[in-house]
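Human:
Class, as today's exercise, you are to examine the entry below, and be ready to discuss the fold:
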Amino acid sequence: QVQLVESGGGLVQPGGSLKLSCAASKSSFNAYIVTWDRQAPGKERELVASMPGSNGGTDYADSVKGRFIASRDNAKRMAYLQMNSLKVEDTAVYYCNARLPLTTVRYSGQGTQVTVSS
């Protein structure tokens, strides 16, 4: 089992930037696929970015491609989501998730609120 704690959310104006962080408890964090997703009020949860454990590229939702950058530092057991050119429609609770390859059990953090408003 791995515990995840997100931080870095807040209120930002349209066009602004925020960087979310996700701290993981597991020393074998590098083995986990890490995803960021979000849920806006009244909407389904949406996958934003997916990062493999070590090798391989990151996949992004079309809605954030070119604006968001997901990264991870396995040595620090940290994952990040740099969000640039934020739009009102990016407003949501953002979650960091982790799962081992070829498994269905997914661990999620408590979420962090991102509000984009003028």
Notes: The two ends are 40 Å apart (CA to CA).
